[in-house]
């Protein structure tokens, strides 16, 4: 597996507010952002297909086995593309 895929992180949304582009129980890709983590946030690619900061306490980070990581990444990207149509 390529090195960059090992650093891809995913999180499950535990809480969403009305009007946000998040769904409770859905898996989202998390982008690395040191400054965001320093203030208790995650940079998440939400349903709009864009990345935004959300409070980290609203998500649970999940470990994905290497053999499933690429498939999950394709699925998450596919859903974001379908949302933008």
**What percentage of the residues does DSSP assign to strands (E)?**
25-35%
The helix-strand sequence is: HEEHEEEH
The name of the CATH superfamily reads SH3 Domains
Distance between the termini: 31 Å
Classified by CATH, the class is Mainly Beta
| Radius of gyration over C-alpha positions, nearest whole angstrom | 13 Å
Biggest sheet layout: 5 strands, antiparallel
What is the level-2 CATH architecture name?
A: Roll
Structural class: alpha+beta
User: In order across it, which strands form the biggest sheet?
Assistant: 4-3-2-1-5
Number of domains: 1
Protein architecture, described:
This protein has 3 helices and 5 strands. With 85 residues, the chain is of the alpha+beta class. The chain has one domain: SH3 type barrels (Roll), CATH 2.30.30.40. The chain has a 5-stranded antiparallel sheet.
A few lines on this structure:
The chain is an alpha+beta fold and 85 residues long. It has a five-stranded antiparallel sheet.
Give descriptors for this structure:
SH3 type barrels, single chain, alpha+beta, globular, 85 residues
Task: Summarize the topology.
Elements: H1 3-6, E1 9-13, E2 27-31, H2 34-38, E3 41-45, E4 51-55, E5 59-62, H3 66-84
Antiparallel strand pairs: 1-2, 1-5, 2-3, 3-4
